[in-house]
Amino acid sequence: xxxxxxxGDVEPLWRSRARWRLKGALLWPAFWLLTVGDAxxxxxxxxxxxxxxxxxxxxxxxGFFNLMAVAxxxxxxxxxxxxxxxxxxxxxxxxxAGTALLLGVTGALLVGGLAxxxxxxxxxxxxxxxxxxxxxxxxxxxxxxYRRRLPxxxxxxxxxxxxxxxxxxxxxxxxxxxxxxxxxxxxGVTGDQNRESNxxxxxxxxxx
Length: 208
Hints:
- By secondary structure, the chain is α+β, with helices and mostly antiparallel strands.
- The chain has helices at about 5-25, 25-45, 55-85, 90-140, 145, 200-205; strands at about 155-160, 160-170, 175-180, 190.
- The chain folds into 2 domains: about 5-120; about 140-205, no CATH class.
- Strands 1-2-3-4 form a 4-stranded antiparallel beta sheet.
- Helix 2 crosses helix 3 and helix 2 (about 25-45) packs parallel to helix 4.
- The protein is rod-shaped and about 80 Å long.
- It starts with 6 loop residues before the first helix and ends with a helix.
- The model is unreliable at about 5-10 (pLDDT under 50).
């Protein structure tokens, strides 16, 4: 029967194992905390679309991103980390890699949301500028029946910096329409011979 190890050998081993366990206990608490935090972030700073993402879809999206980071990327990064630090147990290397990747996902969502917000502000500015230019043109060029209905003007975005703005007349099937390009200053305004409404074009698809 082997002798028990001296007390001086047992205590450092116990402490070492406890320390590694504490260091390796970050990943899953961080996963749940950051998944909820990312969902809230997507609600305030969406990375796509014109408005914030509702909480449940945002939670599903952030959960997908984080799960992919932990399940797919973290094992590869953890293995690479172990090659550089042989003293790390595999579980700890995986935990470090996964936690770092989760923080990276949050950082990427933040950067993407800020960039998208800047793009949204530019689009809102373009919408204001084009409407002003279109109304000025219509006040000069449109017949009286259309000028009376300028408050009912509608707009669709044909391309990033090209808009079609229309005003109804006495005949509901005939609108006075112009194209407005905001890639120049002042915006370029061109009359459209097509009297079809924006709603009719939008129904065909592809326009906002």
